[in-house]
Amino acid sequence: MNFDELKSEWDSENADDVHIPQNTNALKAARHPLQALKRTMKNELILQLAGLAAFVFLPFLLGIDRTFYLVYYLGFMVILVISGYYLIEFRKFYRQVDHFELATKDSLTAIYYDLRLNMERYKSWGFLLTPFGLFVIGIFFYSRFLRTAESWMPTETQGIIIFIGCFSMLLLIIWSINWWLQYYYGRYADQLKALLDALREDR
Amino acid sequence: MRKRTEPVADRSEQYFLDQVKIHAGILHKVARMYTDHAADREDLQQEILIQLWKSYQSFRGDSQFSTWMYRVAINTAITFIKKNKFYNIPVDAATISHQPDEDAHQQQARLDAFYKAVRELNPIERALLFYFMEGLSHKETGLQLGISEVNARVKLNRTKEKLQTIIKKQGYEF
Prior knowledge:
Number of helices of chain A: 6
Radius of gyration of chain A: 26 Å
Structural class of chain A: mainly alpha
Shape of chain B: globular
Distance between the termini of chain A: 27 Å
Number of strands of chain A: 0
Strand content of chain B: under 5%
Oligomer: heterodimer
Number of strands of chain B: 0
Order of helices and strands of chain B: HHHHHHHH
Shape of chain A: elongated
Protein backbone atom coordinates (compact mmCIF):
# COMPACT_ATOMS: atom_id res chain seq x y z
CA MET A 1 0.00 0.00 0.00
CA ASN A 2 1.50 3.28 -1.11
CA PHE A 3 0.86 5.72 1.71
CA ASP A 4 2.87 8.50 0.06
CA GLU A 5 0.51 8.61 -2.94
CA LEU A 6 -2.45 8.37 -0.63
CA LYS A 7 -1.10 11.25 1.46
CA SER A 8 -0.83 13.55 -1.54
CA GLU A 9 -4.44 12.73 -2.47
CA TRP A 10 -5.43 13.27 1.15
CA ASP A 11 -3.74 16.68 1.15
CA SER A 12 -5.43 17.78 -2.05
CA GLU A 13 -8.89 16.68 -0.97
CA ASN A 14 -11.34 19.56 -0.95
CA ALA A 15 -13.63 20.43 1.94
CA ASP A 16 -16.60 21.79 0.01
CA ASP A 17 -19.07 19.82 2.09
CA VAL A 18 -18.14 21.70 5.28
CA HIS A 19 -20.70 24.38 6.15
CA ILE A 20 -19.27 27.03 8.42
CA PRO A 21 -21.90 29.54 9.53
CA GLN A 22 -21.52 33.32 9.33
CA ASN A 23 -21.87 33.55 13.08
CA THR A 24 -21.91 31.15 16.01
CA ASN A 25 -25.58 31.87 16.77
CA ALA A 26 -26.37 29.71 13.75
CA LEU A 27 -24.81 26.70 15.46
CA LYS A 28 -27.55 24.36 16.61
CA ALA A 29 -27.77 23.07 20.16
CA ALA A 30 -25.22 20.40 20.99
CA ARG A 31 -26.39 16.88 20.20
CA HIS A 32 -23.34 15.10 21.46
CA PRO A 33 -24.28 11.86 23.27
CA LEU A 34 -22.57 13.10 26.42
CA GLN A 35 -24.69 16.29 26.40
CA ALA A 36 -27.78 14.16 25.79
CA LEU A 37 -26.91 11.95 28.80
CA LYS A 38 -26.42 14.99 31.00
CA ARG A 39 -29.74 16.48 29.84
CA THR A 40 -31.52 13.19 30.59
CA MET A 41 -29.96 13.02 34.04
CA LYS A 42 -30.90 16.64 34.69
CA ASN A 43 -34.52 16.05 33.65
CA GLU A 44 -34.76 12.95 35.83
CA LEU A 45 -33.40 14.88 38.78
CA ILE A 46 -35.91 17.69 38.22
CA LEU A 47 -38.72 15.12 38.28
CA GLN A 48 -37.34 13.57 41.45
CA LEU A 49 -37.07 17.01 43.02
CA ALA A 50 -40.71 17.65 42.15
CA GLY A 51 -41.55 14.33 43.72
CA LEU A 52 -39.64 15.30 46.84
CA ALA A 53 -41.55 18.60 47.00
CA ALA A 54 -44.80 16.63 46.92
CA PHE A 55 -43.68 14.86 50.11
CA VAL A 56 -44.28 18.14 51.98
CA PHE A 57 -48.04 17.73 51.47
CA LEU A 58 -48.19 13.96 51.62
CA PRO A 59 -49.27 13.63 55.28
CA PHE A 60 -52.36 15.77 54.52
CA LEU A 61 -53.11 14.05 51.23
CA LEU A 62 -52.80 10.54 52.68
CA GLY A 63 -54.61 11.36 55.90
CA ILE A 64 -51.68 10.30 58.07
CA ASP A 65 -52.43 10.54 61.79
CA ARG A 66 -51.27 13.84 63.37
CA THR A 67 -49.23 12.01 65.99
CA PHE A 68 -46.82 11.01 63.23
CA TYR A 69 -46.31 14.53 61.84
CA LEU A 70 -43.25 15.34 63.94
CA VAL A 71 -41.37 12.13 63.15
CA TYR A 72 -42.39 12.39 59.48
CA TYR A 73 -41.10 15.93 59.03
CA LEU A 74 -37.94 15.19 60.99
CA GLY A 75 -37.21 12.34 58.61
CA PHE A 76 -38.13 14.51 55.64
CA MET A 77 -35.75 17.24 56.81
CA VAL A 78 -32.86 14.75 56.94
CA ILE A 79 -33.68 13.58 53.41
CA LEU A 80 -33.90 17.18 52.22
CA VAL A 81 -30.48 18.12 53.58
CA ILE A 82 -28.83 15.03 52.09
CA SER A 83 -30.61 15.61 48.76
CA GLY A 84 -29.34 19.20 48.73
CA TYR A 85 -25.76 17.93 48.82
CA TYR A 86 -26.36 15.49 45.95
CA LEU A 87 -28.16 18.04 43.81
CA ILE A 88 -25.30 20.53 44.15
CA GLU A 89 -22.86 17.84 42.99
CA PHE A 90 -25.10 16.79 40.07
CA ARG A 91 -25.44 20.42 39.01
CA LYS A 92 -21.64 20.72 38.86
CA PHE A 93 -21.53 17.62 36.66
CA TYR A 94 -24.01 18.73 34.02
CA ARG A 95 -22.73 22.29 33.92
CA GLN A 96 -19.08 21.46 33.53
CA VAL A 97 -17.31 21.69 30.19
CA ASP A 98 -16.17 18.41 28.73
CA HIS A 99 -12.49 19.17 28.15
CA PHE A 100 -12.28 18.07 24.54
CA GLU A 101 -9.18 20.23 24.19
CA LEU A 102 -7.10 17.90 26.34
CA ALA A 103 -4.99 15.03 24.99
CA THR A 104 -7.38 12.22 24.05
CA LYS A 105 -6.47 9.92 26.92
CA ASP A 106 -6.85 12.72 29.48
CA SER A 107 -10.15 13.83 27.95
CA LEU A 108 -11.57 10.29 27.94
CA THR A 109 -10.35 9.66 31.50
CA ALA A 110 -11.99 12.86 32.79
CA ILE A 111 -15.29 12.14 31.01
CA TYR A 112 -15.37 8.46 31.99
CA TYR A 113 -14.62 8.94 35.69
CA ASP A 114 -16.95 11.94 35.98
CA LEU A 115 -19.76 9.91 34.46
CA ARG A 116 -19.08 6.87 36.68
CA LEU A 117 -18.83 9.06 39.78
CA ASN A 118 -22.17 10.70 39.07
CA MET A 119 -23.80 7.37 38.29
CA GLU A 120 -22.66 6.14 41.71
CA ARG A 121 -23.91 9.35 43.34
CA TYR A 122 -27.28 8.91 41.59
CA LYS A 123 -27.41 5.31 42.84
CA SER A 124 -26.55 6.15 46.44
CA TRP A 125 -29.08 9.01 46.44
CA GLY A 126 -31.76 6.59 45.24
CA PHE A 127 -30.76 4.10 47.95
CA LEU A 128 -31.00 6.84 50.60
CA LEU A 129 -34.48 7.92 49.50
CA THR A 130 -35.83 4.36 49.44
CA PRO A 131 -35.97 3.72 53.21
CA PHE A 132 -37.80 7.04 53.66
CA GLY A 133 -40.33 5.93 51.05
CA LEU A 134 -40.87 2.68 52.90
CA PHE A 135 -41.17 4.61 56.16
CA VAL A 136 -43.94 6.79 54.65
CA ILE A 137 -45.79 3.70 53.41
CA GLY A 138 -45.42 2.18 56.87
CA ILE A 139 -46.89 5.14 58.76
CA PHE A 140 -49.67 5.46 56.18
CA PHE A 141 -50.88 1.92 56.78
CA TYR A 142 -50.40 2.21 60.52
CA SER A 143 -52.46 5.45 60.51
CA ARG A 144 -55.28 3.63 58.77
CA PHE A 145 -55.22 0.81 61.31
CA LEU A 146 -55.29 3.37 64.14
CA ARG A 147 -58.49 4.86 62.69
CA THR A 148 -60.25 1.50 62.66
CA ALA A 149 -58.92 0.15 65.97
CA GLU A 150 -57.55 1.62 69.22
CA SER A 151 -54.27 -0.11 68.75
CA TRP A 152 -52.92 -2.69 66.40
CA MET A 153 -50.15 -5.17 66.94
CA PRO A 154 -49.26 -7.53 64.11
CA THR A 155 -49.18 -11.20 64.85
CA GLU A 156 -45.96 -13.13 64.38
CA THR A 157 -47.04 -14.32 60.94
CA GLN A 158 -48.16 -10.85 59.90
CA GLY A 159 -44.84 -9.46 61.13
CA ILE A 160 -42.89 -11.96 59.04
CA ILE A 161 -45.02 -11.20 55.97
CA ILE A 162 -44.51 -7.45 56.44
CA PHE A 163 -40.77 -7.95 56.88
CA ILE A 164 -40.46 -10.14 53.78
CA GLY A 165 -42.64 -7.73 51.81
CA CYS A 166 -40.55 -4.69 52.76
CA PHE A 167 -37.26 -6.54 52.18
CA SER A 168 -38.42 -7.72 48.74
CA MET A 169 -39.60 -4.25 47.82
CA LEU A 170 -36.26 -2.81 48.89
CA LEU A 171 -34.36 -5.34 46.76
CA LEU A 172 -36.62 -4.64 43.81
CA ILE A 173 -36.06 -0.89 44.09
CA ILE A 174 -32.28 -1.34 44.40
CA TRP A 175 -32.23 -3.69 41.39
CA SER A 176 -34.40 -1.25 39.38
CA ILE A 177 -32.11 1.70 40.12
CA ASN A 178 -29.05 -0.34 39.08
CA TRP A 179 -30.74 -1.59 35.92
CA TRP A 180 -32.00 1.88 34.98
CA LEU A 181 -28.56 3.45 35.39
CA GLN A 182 -26.77 0.70 33.50
CA TYR A 183 -29.30 0.80 30.64
CA TYR A 184 -29.35 4.58 30.16
CA TYR A 185 -25.84 5.59 31.19
CA GLY A 186 -23.76 2.48 31.76
CA ARG A 187 -23.53 1.46 28.12
CA TYR A 188 -21.97 4.77 27.13
CA ALA A 189 -19.57 4.52 30.09
CA ASP A 190 -18.61 0.99 28.96
CA GLN A 191 -17.87 2.28 25.47
CA LEU A 192 -15.67 5.03 26.89
CA LYS A 193 -13.82 2.41 28.96
CA ALA A 194 -13.23 0.35 25.81
CA LEU A 195 -11.67 3.43 24.16
CA LEU A 196 -9.40 3.97 27.17
CA ASP A 197 -8.35 0.32 27.07
CA ALA A 198 -7.44 0.74 23.39
CA LEU A 199 -4.98 3.49 24.39
CA ARG A 200 -3.15 1.38 26.97
CA GLU A 201 0.53 0.64 26.52
CA ASP A 202 1.04 -2.62 24.64
CA ARG A 203 3.37 -5.04 26.39
CA MET B 1 13.64 24.43 16.36
CA ARG B 2 10.74 25.52 18.52
CA LYS B 3 7.51 26.14 16.63
CA ARG B 4 6.12 29.63 16.81
CA THR B 5 2.62 29.64 18.19
CA GLU B 6 -0.05 32.00 16.92
CA PRO B 7 -0.88 34.69 19.47
CA VAL B 8 -4.49 34.60 20.61
CA ALA B 9 -4.80 38.36 20.63
CA ASP B 10 -8.18 38.22 19.00
CA ARG B 11 -10.82 36.14 20.79
CA SER B 12 -13.54 37.44 18.55
CA GLU B 13 -16.08 35.19 16.93
CA GLN B 14 -14.98 36.33 13.49
CA TYR B 15 -11.35 35.38 14.11
CA PHE B 16 -12.47 31.98 15.34
CA LEU B 17 -14.68 31.38 12.27
CA ASP B 18 -11.92 32.58 9.91
CA GLN B 19 -9.45 30.16 11.48
CA VAL B 20 -11.93 27.31 11.26
CA LYS B 21 -12.53 28.12 7.55
CA ILE B 22 -8.78 27.97 6.91
CA HIS B 23 -8.66 24.54 8.55
CA ALA B 24 -12.00 23.29 7.26
CA GLY B 25 -10.22 20.27 5.80
CA ILE B 26 -9.82 18.91 9.33
CA LEU B 27 -13.60 18.88 9.80
CA HIS B 28 -14.11 17.23 6.43
CA LYS B 29 -11.54 14.49 6.98
CA VAL B 30 -12.48 13.69 10.58
CA ALA B 31 -16.16 13.47 9.58
CA ARG B 32 -15.35 11.15 6.66
CA MET B 33 -13.26 8.91 8.88
CA TYR B 34 -15.82 8.61 11.66
CA THR B 35 -19.15 8.49 9.83
CA ASP B 36 -20.42 6.66 6.80
CA HIS B 37 -23.46 8.67 5.70
CA ALA B 38 -23.69 12.25 4.48
CA ALA B 39 -26.32 13.16 7.09
CA ASP B 40 -24.18 11.77 9.92
CA ARG B 41 -21.16 13.55 8.49
CA GLU B 42 -22.95 16.87 8.63
CA ASP B 43 -24.12 16.13 12.19
CA LEU B 44 -20.59 15.38 13.30
CA GLN B 45 -19.15 18.44 11.58
CA GLN B 46 -21.74 20.61 13.33
CA GLU B 47 -21.01 18.97 16.64
CA ILE B 48 -17.27 19.55 16.23
CA LEU B 49 -17.93 23.21 15.44
CA ILE B 50 -20.04 23.55 18.58
CA GLN B 51 -17.36 21.91 20.75
CA LEU B 52 -14.65 24.06 19.13
CA TRP B 53 -16.56 27.23 19.96
CA LYS B 54 -17.25 26.04 23.53
CA SER B 55 -13.57 25.21 24.08
CA TYR B 56 -12.29 28.31 22.29
CA GLN B 57 -12.58 30.63 25.29
CA SER B 58 -10.11 28.49 27.23
CA PHE B 59 -7.67 28.19 24.29
CA ARG B 60 -4.49 29.86 25.48
CA GLY B 61 -2.56 29.83 22.21
CA ASP B 62 0.20 27.64 23.66
CA SER B 63 -0.16 25.45 20.59
CA GLN B 64 -1.03 26.16 16.98
CA PHE B 65 -4.71 26.61 16.20
CA SER B 66 -4.59 23.54 13.96
CA THR B 67 -3.05 21.39 16.71
CA TRP B 68 -5.76 22.46 19.15
CA MET B 69 -8.43 21.93 16.48
CA TYR B 70 -7.15 18.39 15.81
CA ARG B 71 -7.62 17.48 19.47
CA VAL B 72 -11.12 18.89 19.84
CA ALA B 73 -12.24 17.39 16.51
CA ILE B 74 -10.82 13.93 17.22
CA ASN B 75 -12.05 13.86 20.84
CA THR B 76 -15.53 14.93 19.74
CA ALA B 77 -15.61 12.29 17.00
CA ILE B 78 -14.28 9.53 19.25
CA THR B 79 -16.95 10.18 21.92
CA PHE B 80 -19.74 10.78 19.40
CA ILE B 81 -21.06 7.27 19.98
CA LYS B 82 -24.64 6.98 18.91
CA LYS B 83 -27.02 4.35 20.31
CA ASN B 84 -27.08 1.10 18.35
CA LYS B 85 -24.34 2.28 16.05
CA PHE B 86 -21.44 -0.03 15.47
CA TYR B 87 -18.13 1.10 14.16
CA ASN B 88 -17.32 -2.10 12.29
CA ILE B 89 -19.52 -1.73 9.26
CA PRO B 90 -18.81 -4.38 6.62
CA VAL B 91 -17.95 -2.81 3.31
CA ASP B 92 -19.32 -4.05 0.04
CA ALA B 93 -16.54 -3.90 -2.56
CA ALA B 94 -19.14 -3.18 -5.23
CA THR B 95 -19.93 0.19 -3.62
CA ILE B 96 -16.42 1.45 -4.22
CA SER B 97 -16.13 3.25 -7.53
CA HIS B 98 -13.85 1.68 -10.10
CA GLN B 99 -13.02 3.76 -13.10
CA PRO B 100 -9.46 2.67 -13.72
CA ASP B 101 -8.98 4.43 -17.04
CA GLU B 102 -9.00 7.98 -15.66
CA ASP B 103 -6.33 9.15 -13.20
CA ALA B 104 -8.56 11.56 -11.28
CA HIS B 105 -11.27 8.97 -10.87
CA GLN B 106 -8.70 6.37 -9.87
CA GLN B 107 -7.36 8.68 -7.20
CA GLN B 108 -10.88 9.37 -5.93
CA ALA B 109 -11.65 5.65 -5.91
CA ARG B 110 -8.45 5.01 -3.96
CA LEU B 111 -9.41 7.63 -1.39
CA ASP B 112 -12.98 6.29 -1.18
CA ALA B 113 -11.63 2.78 -0.61
CA PHE B 114 -9.29 4.14 2.05
CA TYR B 115 -12.12 5.87 3.94
CA LYS B 116 -14.40 2.86 3.72
CA ALA B 117 -11.65 0.61 5.07
CA VAL B 118 -10.85 3.08 7.84
CA ARG B 119 -14.44 2.90 9.06
CA GLU B 120 -13.87 -0.77 9.93
CA LEU B 121 -11.21 0.25 12.46
CA ASN B 122 -11.95 1.23 16.04
CA PRO B 123 -12.06 4.96 16.94
CA ILE B 124 -8.53 5.03 18.40
CA GLU B 125 -7.04 3.35 15.31
CA ARG B 126 -8.82 5.92 13.14
CA ALA B 127 -7.32 8.72 15.23
CA LEU B 128 -3.82 7.24 14.80
CA LEU B 129 -4.28 7.02 11.06
CA PHE B 130 -5.67 10.53 10.88
CA TYR B 131 -2.63 12.00 12.59
CA PHE B 132 -0.34 9.92 10.38
CA MET B 133 -2.06 11.16 7.23
CA GLU B 134 -1.83 14.74 8.50
CA GLY B 135 1.93 14.30 8.71
CA LEU B 136 2.38 14.32 12.48
CA SER B 137 5.41 12.50 13.87
CA HIS B 138 5.04 9.62 16.34
CA LYS B 139 6.00 11.98 19.14
CA GLU B 140 3.39 14.55 18.10
CA THR B 141 0.77 11.82 17.70
CA GLY B 142 1.63 10.54 21.17
CA LEU B 143 1.19 14.04 22.60
CA GLN B 144 -2.18 14.46 20.90
CA LEU B 145 -3.43 11.13 22.19
CA GLY B 146 -1.80 11.33 25.60
CA ILE B 147 0.31 8.20 25.07
CA SER B 148 4.04 7.59 24.77
CA GLU B 149 5.87 7.95 21.47
CA VAL B 150 6.73 4.23 21.49
CA ASN B 151 3.11 3.26 22.09
CA ALA B 152 2.00 5.56 19.26
CA ARG B 153 4.53 3.99 16.87
CA VAL B 154 3.60 0.40 17.78
CA LYS B 155 -0.13 1.05 17.53
CA LEU B 156 0.21 2.93 14.26
CA ASN B 157 2.21 0.12 12.65
CA ARG B 158 -0.40 -2.41 13.71
CA THR B 159 -3.16 -0.17 12.42
CA LYS B 160 -1.50 0.18 9.02
CA GLU B 161 -1.16 -3.62 8.73
CA LYS B 162 -4.78 -4.05 9.72
CA LEU B 163 -5.85 -1.45 7.16
CA GLN B 164 -3.95 -3.19 4.37
CA THR B 165 -5.64 -6.47 5.26
CA ILE B 166 -9.07 -4.80 5.21
CA ILE B 167 -8.43 -3.17 1.83
CA LYS B 168 -7.30 -6.51 0.35
CA LYS B 169 -10.43 -8.16 1.70
CA GLN B 170 -12.50 -5.50 -0.01
CA GLY B 171 -10.91 -6.62 -3.27
CA TYR B 172 -9.06 -3.39 -3.83
CA GLU B 173 -5.31 -3.11 -4.10
CA PHE B 174 -3.04 -0.07 -4.31
